[in-house]
């Protein structure tokens, strides 16, 4: 089940939320280090954040803004502040929903479920785009401007994993696990061959230096 990070300074409310969500199968995490909350949340990498506005050190608006600068983790504001200005500001800062206290627990659960379904379980896009390169998932081709090239199964999976994690380094081990599920059956040189073939195919459509090698770490786009 998804992990929910609860940002709430009222210990009683936080524990009530934790018991409620765990009863319905969610994993809950939280922290009392409000001075470093955005960094802690990013490190924990939850699937959803429940965020109060009235907090010590930094308010929920600041935390929401800082999270949105680094991540698209869905955020539901749960607060006693019920003005339209508060709701509008929350949405403008990137919150996915806004619920006022006191709340009906079943409505809260329904909102959580709705946000998670919308973010994680909607139909995936058929085309991924990054830095001018398109990967057509249904046709197995890469495109740049008006040119396209057909990819092999392995080339397609390599480019797919890198584009889904764009601007993040993916290790050789992660790539091999994704391609063959178990790296023990794979010659390390085989991955290098596939990477080089993918690079050459991208060059055929005018894309150079798209796959970046991070020596000793892996690859990224």
Task: Tell me what the structure shows.
- It is a single chain.
- The chain is of the alpha/beta class.
- The protein is 43% helix and 20% strand.
- It has eight helices and eleven strands.
- A five-stranded parallel beta sheet has the order 2-1-3-4-5, sandwiched between helices.
- Helix 1 links the parallel strand 1 and strand 2.
- The radius of gyration is 21 Å and the shape is elongated.
- The two termini are 30 Å apart.
- The model has no long low-confidence stretch (mean pLDDT 91).
- Number of DSSP helices? 8
What string gives the helices and strands in order?
EHEHEHEHEHEEEEHHHEE
Strand arrangement, largest sheet? 2-1-3-4-5
Low-confidence stretches: none
| CATH architecture name of the largest domain | 3-Layer(aba) Sandwich
Secondary structure blueprint with pairings:
Blueprint (H helix, E strand, L loop, with lengths): L2 E5 L3 H13 L3 E4 L6 H8 L3 E4 L8 H11 L4 E5 L4 H9 L4 E4 L4 H16 L6 E4 L2 E4 L4 E4 L2 E4 L2 H12 L7 H9 L7 H17 L7 E3 L3 E3 L1
Parallel strand pairs: 1-2, 1-3, 3-4, 4-5
Antiparallel strand pairs: 6-7, 7-8, 8-9, 10-11
Helix pairs in contact: 2-3, 6-8
Features:
alpha/beta; Rossmann fold; Arc Repressor Mutant, subunit A; 2 domains; 20% strand; Stage 0 sporulation protein A homolog
């Amino acid at each position: 089940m998804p992990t929910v990070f609860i940002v709430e300074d009222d210990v009683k409310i936080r524990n009530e939320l934790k018991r409620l969500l765990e009863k319905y199968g969610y994993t809950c995490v939280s922290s009392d280090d409000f001075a470093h909350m955005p960094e802690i949340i990013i490190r924990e990498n939850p699937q959803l954040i429940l965020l109060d506005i009235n907090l010590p050190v930094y308010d929920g608006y600041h935390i929401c803004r800082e999270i949105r600068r680094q991540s698209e983790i869905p955020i539901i504001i749960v607060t006693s502040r019920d003005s339209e200005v508060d709701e509008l500001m929350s949405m403008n800062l990137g919150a996915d929903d806004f619920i006022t206290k006191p709340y009906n627990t079943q409505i809260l659960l329904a909102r959580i479920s709705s946000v998670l379904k919308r973010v994680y379980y909607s139909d995936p896009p058929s085309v991924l785009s990054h830095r001018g390169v398109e990967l057509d998932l249904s046709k197995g081709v890469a495109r740049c401007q008006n040119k396209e090239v057909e990819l092999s199964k392995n080339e397609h999976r390599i480019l797919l994993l890198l584009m889904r994690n764009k601007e993040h380094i993916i290790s050789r081990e992660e790539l091999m696990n994704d391609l063959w599920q178990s790296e023990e059956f794979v010659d390390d040189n085989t991955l290098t061959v596939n990477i080089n073939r993918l690079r050459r195919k991208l060059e055929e459509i005018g894309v150079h230096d798209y796959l970046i090698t991070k020596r000793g770490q892996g690859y990224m786009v």
